[in-house]
Amino acid sequence: MNMFRSYDFQRAGALVDRALNLPAVDIESS
Asked: What does each of the 30 residues of the chain score in pLDDT, given as a tens digit?
């Protein structure tokens, strides 16, 4: 169960990282 939870957390972290990174790049580019 710990392994599955770790994988799920990693997946969520990747999505959050992408969501935060995209706007950040957009703002910096402007």
From this structure: 677 788 888 899 898 888 888 776 676 766
- Per the structure, the count of domains in the chain is 1
Half-sphere exposure of 21 (CA within 13 A, CB side): 6
Question: Measured between alpha carbons, how far is 11 from 3 in angstroms, rounded to an integer?
Answer: 12
Q: Which domain holds residue 2?
A: 1-30
**Number of separate helices (H) and strands (E) present in the chain:** 1, 0
